[in-house]
Design goal:
globular; 16 helices
Length: 451
C-alpha cells in the first residue's frame, strides 16, 4: 500500500501516535494470529479508516471513501473491516489505555488516591435476527417493531475522563454481570466510585481482596440505622421478627450520621458469581456508612447514604466523601460524549462481531479525544471538563497541518448548573410502529389497489 499522510497522527503526542503506526498495527495483527495480503486495504489502512469513520460521527462507509479520495468502493471497505479480527482492535485499545494510565498516574488525585468511576449504559443497533438473539430487545415490543439493545459497563478515570476498559452483554443483564471484566485494570490503592447498582457485599469484598477501596451509594433496599449501639436483625430472623432492624453490627460512631459497621456475608449467591467465587468471600467485612443532605436547589436527591471502605474519618472526612459522590455525575457526561456527540447511541453493524468491533473502536477514538483534552487543559491551566469535547474532535480531524491544542474551545465554568430535563423541539407527529413493516406496507398496497 502506498504511504499516506495522516494529519490525525501529527496532532497526537508521539507516544500515542506510535500506537497507530504501521509497525504497532502489524504487531497487533501478529499477536491476534491474523495473516493478510499486501493490498490497498491492508490492516494499517483499515484500522486508520475505521478510526476516521468513528471520529466523523460513525459516518456511512460510502462517506469514508470520499474522505481521502481512495481508489476503492464502500463494499471493499466493509469487507476489509469484516476481515479484521476483533482482537486486533482490542490490542490497540488496551495499549492506548495502558499508555494513558501511565501518563496520567501522577496527575490530579483525590486526597492522594486515584479514583475510577464505574457505571453502566446501553446502546441500540440494527434489527436483525443475529443481534436480536444475542442481545435481546425491550419487553413488550413485537417482532419487527423494535431494535436490539446492548448493556455495557465502562470504567472512567475521574480526573481525566480517560476510559480504561469496557464490557458489553445482553440487554437483560445486571451491571455486575460485566463489572469484573471492566474493573480488571484497577490497581491496589485505587478507589472505585459508583452508584447503587454496584453496592453489594460481594462486590465490595472482592475489591477489598484486591487492595481497592470503594465509595458507593447505598442500595435503596438496605436498612440503615445511625442510632449508636442499636440492635440488629439476627441470622434466620423473619422480617416480622425484627422489623426495621439492619443486619449489620454497629461498631463505632465517627460523628453525626457517620458510623462504622460490620456487614455479614449473605446466604444467597449473586447470579453473577460462581459458586467457587462466592465460597471464597470472607464471612464479614467492615465498612463505613454515612448520610448527608443535598441543599443545592434543583438537585433531585435530597438525602444520600454512602457506603465506603475508607474508614479513617480524619484522612477521609465526611464532607470530602460527599463532594466525591457529587462528582460521580461526571460519568453521565462521559456517556453523553460517547453516545450523543460521537453518535454511539446507535451502532450500524449487523453481526455480533461487528458490533463489538465498533464498541472497541469507539473506546479507542474516545481515548484519543480524552488525551487531546487533557493536553489542552494542562497547557492552559484549566480543568479537563472545561475543554470542549466536540471542538477537540474537530481539531483532531482537521485535515490542515499545523495548530496546537491551545486552539480548542474552553467552555465557561458553570458549577452546579441546573437545567430541566425536557425537549423544546417537537418531534414529528408520526405514530409508533406497532406492527412489522411488511404488514403495514401490504396494508397500504391493499388500500391503493382497492381504490
Amino acid at each position: 500500500m502506498r504511504t499516506r499522510n495522516w494529519p490525525i497522527l501529527d496532532r497526537l503526542r508521539q507516544d500515542l501516535a506510535q500506537i497507530l503506526g504501521p509497525e504497532s498495527i502489524r504487531s497487533a495483527c501478529h499477536e491476534a494470529g491474523y495473516r493478510w495480503r499486501d493490498r490497498e486495504l491492508d490492516p494499517v489502512a483499515t484500522v486508520r479508516l475505521f478510526l476516521l469513520q468513528v471520529l466523523h460521527g460513525n459516518t456511512a462507509c460510502q462517506h469514508v471513501v470520499h474522505l481521502g479520495r481512495w481508489a476503492f468502493t464502500a463494499s471493499a471497505y466493509c469487507k476489509a473491516r469484516r476481515r479484521l479480527p476483533l482482537r486486533v482492535l482490542e490490542v490497540l485499545a488496551e495499549q492506548l489505555a495502558s499508555k494513558l494510565r501511565s501518563a496520567t498516574s501522577t496527575g490530579a488525585t483525590w486526597l492522594g488516591r486515584r479514583v475510577w468511576i464505574i457505571d453502566g449504559s446501553s446502546f441500540s443497533m440494527s434489527d436483525v435476527p443475529e443481534l436480536r438473539g444475542h442481545f435481546g430487545q425491550p419487553a413488550g415490543q413485537r417482532p419487527g417493531c423494535g431494535f436490539p439493545v446492548a448493556h455495557w459497563v465502562a470504567l472512567f478515570d475521574l480526573a481525566t475522563g480517560m476510559l480504561s476498559r469496557v464490557a458489553a452483554g445482553p440487554m437483560r443483564s445486571h451491571d455486575m454481570a460485566t463489572t469484573p471484566e471492566a474493573e480488571a485494570d484497577l490497581a491496589p490503592g485505587d478507589v472505585a466510585l459508583g452508584d447503587r447498582g454496584f453496592c453489594s457485599y460481594a462486590h465490595i469484598a472482592n475489591l477489598l481482596a484486591r487492595g481497592i477501596d470503594a465509595v458507593f451509594r447505598l442500595h435503596q433496599k438496605q436498612i440503615v440505622d445511625f442510632t449508636p449501639g442499636r440492635a440488629r436483625a439476627k441470622k434466620g430472623d423473619r422480617p416480622l421478627d425484627s422489623p426495621g432492624r439492619p443486619r449489620s453490627r454497629w461498631v463505632r460512631s465517627h460523628g453525626d450520621q457517620d458510623q462504622e459497621v460490620v456487614w455479614f456475608k449473605p446466604d444467597r449467591k449473586p447470579v453473577w458469581m460462581t459458586a467457587e467465587e462466592f465460597a471464597a468471600l470472607p464471612p464479614e467485612i467492615t465498612v463505613r456508612e454515612l448520610r448527608y443532605r443535598v441543599s443545592t436547589p434543583g438537585f433531585r436527591a435530597r438525602e444520600v447514604i454512602l457506603v465506603t471502605t475508607l474508614l479513617d474519618p480524619r484522612a477521609y472526612p465526611k464532607a470530602e466523601l460527599a463532594e466525591l459522590s457529587r462528582r460521580r455525575w461526571q460519568v453521565e457526561l462521559n456517556f453523553r460524549h460517547m453516545k450523543i456527540s460521537m453518535k454511539m447511541d446507535v451502532v450500524r453493524c449487523q453481526t455480533v462481531a461487528g458490533v463489538m468491533k465498533e464498541l472497541t473502536m469507539f473506546t479507542l477514538a474516545y481515548n484519543l479525544i480524552a488525551s487531546v483534552r487533557a493536553e489542552s487543559a494542562v497547557l492552559r491551566g484549566v480543568a479537563v471538563d472545561r475543554i470542549g469535547f466536540l471542538d477537540a474532535v474537530r481539531w483532531l480531524t482537521n485535515p490542515q497541518p499545523g495548530g496546537d491544542a491551545c486552539q480548542i474551545l474552553i467552555n465557561p465554568s458553570r458549577p452546579d448548573r441546573v437545567e430541566p430535563r425536557v425537549r423544546k423541539r417537537r418531534p414529528k407527529q408520526f405514530p409508533l410502529m406497532k406492527e412489522p413493516r411488511k404488514v403495514l406496507r401490504n396494508r397500504l398496497m391493499g388500500k391503493k389497489d382497492a381504490a
